[in-house]
Amino acid sequence: MGIDIAASLDIKARETSFSGVVEVVSAECSFRKSLGYRDRANKLKIDCDTRFGTASGTKGFTALAVASLVESGEIRMDTKAVSILADRFPELHPDITIQQLLAHTSGVGDHYDEELIQGGVDDFFLSIPVQDLVSPFDYLPLLRERPQKFAPGDRACYSNGGYVLLAMIIESVSGMDFQRYVEERVFHPSGMRCSGFFRSDDLPENAALGYLAGENDSRTNALNLPVIGSGDGGAYSCLEDMKSFWRSLLSLKIVTKPTLDQMIQPRNRIENSDYGLGFWIEAGGNFITLEGYDAGVSFYSGCSRDLKTQFTVISNDRLGAWPIVKALKKSLL
User: Is 232 in contact with 59 (CB distance < 8 Å)?
Assistant: First the structure.
C-alpha cells in the first residue's frame, strides 16, 4: 500500500506541475519528495531541506506563544485584551478575551477579511506598504479601519486581525519582539533549526520565493505580503522542522498536557471544520493540523495524536498543495 501511495502522489504531483515538498510518515509508508524551483528565474531547484512560508500555519505557533505566557502566570485565558492594549488601541471592544482571539470568536474587525476579499488573494493588496509592516503594532491603522463584526463570543469567524492582536499582546507582556519570542518559546524547544521569521527582502539560504498564479508565473509575492510575518502568518519552515514540531508538541516539550488538551479540543466549527485554539482538528478529533493559504503559499501539516501518522505538504504557489493534501487525506485519514 505504501508503494501505491508514493506512486500515486508522484503521478498527481507531475499532473498538477506541483512545486514544493511532501513528507509522509506512517505505518503504511514513509517518504519525502521535492519538485520544482525555489527560484524560477535562476533555475534553483527545491530540495527536501528548502524553507517555505507557512502562511496561516503560523497561527499555531502564535497560539503556543500565548499559551506559554498563560502557563507562566503573566496572563489568563479570560484576560481582557484591552487591559493590555488600551494605551495603543483604546477603541478595542472591552469584552474581548485572549481565549476569544485564539478561538476566532472575538468579532474584532479584520484587516485581511477573507469573507470580503474579491478576486482572490493574488489580487489583494494592503493599504499600507508591505515594507512598513514589521511590528504587530504597525497594523493598528489597518485594524482601526475595520468595525467590530459581532459581539465577542456570539459566533466563530476566522480572523487574521485577531491573531495580529495576539502578537501585540505577546510583545506587550513579554517585552520582546513577537518574532523573537516565538522563536525562543516554540521553535528552539522544538529543535526547529531552520525555521524563523525572515524578511522577504533578506531571505536566508535555500528559502523558496513564492509565486503568483496565472499567465505570468514568474512574478513573486513580494508586493502582496508583509515584509516579515506577524501573528497571523508568515513564518518559514521546512519538512524536518515540521516533523520535529509535531514530535515536540505531542511529547509536551512546548506546553504542558493540560494546556495542550485545551488547545486541541474542538471548540467551534469554522469553514466546516473543527477548530480549537490555534489548531484545526480532523478525523474525529484524532488528527491535529495547521494550514495556510496566501499569495504564493500553500501549506498543510498534520499529525495524529499518537504520533503514528504525519504528513506535510508545502508549495510556493497558492494552489499547489491542495491536490496532494486531498489525496493524502483519502489514503491516510
Answer: yes
Q: Could you identify the residue written with the cell 488547545?
A: 263
State the alpha helices, DSSP H only, in 38-151. 58-71, 82-85, 98-103, 140-144
Question: What residues contact 319, with CB distance under 8 A and at least 6 apart?
Answer: 213, 298
Specify the pTM: 0.97
pLDDT, block means (10 residues), the chain with 333 residues: 76 92 92 96 97 98 98 98 97 97 97 74 86 98 94 97 98 98 98 98 98 80 96 98 98 98 97 96 97 96 97 96 96 91
| DSSP state letters, 22-54 | EEEESSS-EEEEEESEEETTTTEEP-TT-BEE-
CA torsion through residues 101, 106, 111, 115, sign? positive
CA distance linking residue 48 with residue 240, whole number of Å: 8
Which three cell numbers, joined as nine digits, stand for 96?
A: 474581548
3-state DSSP assignment of residue 330: helix
Q: What's the CA angle centered on 324, arms 323 and 328, to 5 degrees?
A: 120
Residues with Cβ within 8 Å of 83's Cβ and at least 6 positions away in sequence, in order, are none
E strand or H helix at 242: helix 239-250
Q: What is the dihedral of CA 149, 153, 157, 162, to 10 degrees?
A: 80
* C-alpha pair distances (Å), 235 with each of 83, 192, 207, 219: 28, 12, 12, 21
The answer to whether 209 and 38 have CB atoms below 8 angstroms apart is yes
Long-range contacts: 259-262, Cβ < 8 Å, 24+? 259/67, 259/70, 259/71, 262/77
